[in-house]
Amino acid sequence: MTQLSVNHFLYLVTAAQWTVLLSLIAFVGGTVVGLPIALMRVSRSRLARALATVYIQIVQGTPLLIVLFLSYFGLGILGYKLIPLVAAGLALTVYAAAFLGEIWRGCIEAVPRTQWEASDCLGLNRFQQYTYVVLPQALRVAIPPTVGFMVQIVKNTSLASVIGFVELARAGQIVNNSTFEPFTIFCAVAAIYFALCYPLSLASRHLERKAHAGRN
Amino acid sequence: MSYDFDFSFLAEKWPAFVAGAWLTVQLTVVSIALGFAVGTICALCRVYGGAVLRRLVGGYVELIRNTPLLVQIFIVYFGLSSLGLKLSAEVSAVIALVVNMGAYTTEIMRAGLQSIQRTQLEAADCLGLTRLQAIIHVVLLPAMERVYPALSSQAVLLMLASSITSQISAEELTATANLVQSDTYRSFEVYIVVAVVYLALSALYRLAFWLLALVLFERKRRLGTAL
Amino acid sequence: MPEETDAVVRIAGVIKEFGPLRVLDGISFDVARGQTVAIVGRSGSGKSTLLRCIAGLETIQGGTIAVCGHAVGTPGSAARAQLRRDVGMVFQSYNLFPHLTVERNITLALTLVKKQSKEEARKRAADVLGLVGLTDKTASYPEQLSGGQQQRVAIARSLALQPQVMLFDEVTSALDPELTAEVLGVMEDLARRGMTMITVTHEMGFARRVADLVVFMHKGKVWEIGPTEELFAAPRTPEFRQFVRSEL
Questions:
Q1: Which of B3, B161, B203 sits opposite A77 (nearest CB)?
Q2: Hey, where are the domains in chain B?
Q3: Which of A65, B25, B43, B79 could be bridged to B163 by S-S, CB 3.0 to 4.6 A?
């Protein structure tokens, strides 16, 4: 057992960088997969809608922890000896895509029908309607809840610790194993998460209020 | 490459999964109920309370909503025990889940309470109802009806998040899976089975909340309209 | 003076301020038992605020209001409970409880405040619903009723508590003309039965027909007050003259 020292806290802060990296991977992955999911949800094709719905229902009905295990062990048996970062990144991507897809569907549907009709009358095709008329408007509505969801992503990267990826939560456990001061250490870990998440929460709320003010 | 799926472990291990799922249900039903109570009281403080109370509740909500449940669970289980408060894994799990559910419920119910017009309270006041009677009989149920979809989604999310309590070895569904997979080395199959059980539980909880709504909101049941 | 000892509501020098804004500036008048008083005036004259002060929904910064000899706005729940027994209030926006049936809207206070049994309360609800002509709507929810019917339920809900005085705050302003008539009919009926009523209204026809006393408010003051016939026959101030002309 070693004495708790400043070095331990520096170690936590270093590990927090991996939390940030994993969050970014999850957010980028979630965006790349989530946007098509959102578009499929509002698609005219019944099959596309059904597929996207099933995907969202399954992911939102399964604990992220289980998705992580499936990603870790599933990729393992496929013969890929994956580093935990990739397995965690994949699981968080799957998870974020489902939630972001659902958030963005709501934002696309919030664009008034008349906007579709007006752009239709101007002779724009479906793709042009999306890129020039609907998505730019949906984007404005989408920013506050998307930033809000980033808080969920950051917090949920802590689950990557269970497959051995050394991010902030895992680092906390490691430090605890050598110093055995769990209360101090996990409060410190919580404080670092808070420092990462709270600004995002504030930003989300601020943007929301601004969007509301703009509408009225 | 090929992989032979083997679910034969189920023949022997299914009672363990049932027991795990049952503990998950027990843990989460208790946590949801208590968390709802905590959140509702906090929301009332946030909307109708004095400045100090509002601040306090606001701090609680922000603290919980901006830190991971996993770390909250560690603080309750490892942290409190190191301070001399020894709690079992199950009790620690319930405490952490209640505190977590309470914070989210506070935010949801706050929105519900704020959607009820002040004039409803004034009308109750003019009829001679005390503030508490007005809140219980006039405000609470309509507020809850307005935000019921969000409340039930949050409850399902909490049920799923309860899998995290496996990390302090509360013997619920995910912990059961961890045990079975280390016994059988059929990790992928085990987690597929557990995922299916969680999906079924999610559907079950949604159904339960739908039924509960029929009991709670008599007007909605009879007229079918939103409040 | 004999009328004064009989006053149900006494308003003396009432001052009400919202921040720097003085909304009521020294209001005084009495309302005798059985009297129907119509408070009229332009919007912003303070008439609704005055009514809310009498109902104890607003605190006042000066003067006194007494209902049945009890001061309104004195701290303490006993005084407040007494006020609630004496005063019934009907709002412009009905303020029925949307999640409760018509009957439960009426019985709620009877069982919670008056501690009546369920049967007693239901019987009382049936009685007052009969008075406003809505006996068949017991099991309906507010949203299933027209605005006029909702307002009649709101009146019945107040009546059920047997108040000494009823306050009506622009109760027909949100209603179509034909629905207005049915609500005014109920109120006329109440006046005939000897209920003490103070109504803030835009309905000049109703005021002339039913009110014993008219109070014209302007800029937070009682600008003119007097028996209905006299006041309308010979307005003393140019403001009231202009108001009467514009409302016809």
A1: B3
A2: 28-217
A3: A65
